[in-house]
Amino acid sequence: FMQGELDLPAFQARVERAIGRNMLVLQRLELLLKFIVKHCRVEGDHDHFVAAKGKQDVVVTNSTLGGLVGKFVDEMLRPASLLGAMEDFETPARSLAPQIALGFSVTVPAEFREAKRSSLAHVVAQRNRLIHHFLPSFDLTSVAGCGEALKHLEEQQQEIFSELEFLRHLADGLRETKQKLAAFLTTPEFEERLLH
User: Fold this and answer.
1) Distance CA 24, CA 1 (A)
2) CA-CA distance, 118 to 145, in Å (whole number)?
3) Tens of pLDDT along 167-195?
């Protein structure tokens, strides 16, 4: 677009729409992170497994975006195999009852894991800037300032979309894996393997 094409109120309206769009995309990203983190791992003894899952869901629901990013990277992007990850489950000291632990993770190179931690941390910083520091950062009383703000918001949107697509891919894989596991748990083959 050319800056001369729109008057100031029209530019300001475009900036406001772009802010709203980015906030909605960030909320989608946060919801995907919550879904993934809620389903990464759960553990407990046979009497408390369901309660442990419920408690974990509340903790995740109330987590900040930054907290979700840390949990996601630490629990979902594992440099070890799933069996290695199972060793990380905490066993409550108060209980000698057998524990049930269920975990989903993907094995990634350490460099990828740290790059993803960094890129998601940057999204968190961008979100915080959008929510808390956007207005002081741009002069929205001029067409030129609105143009700079729009350029920033469009670049921010592309960065968020990149992370959103990555998380959608993982969430889809997690859903598919859970469905396959749920189907397998109802088969005679599973019962045979579990009991013998």
Assistant:
1) 24
2) 29
3) 999 999 999 988 998 898 889 998 888 88
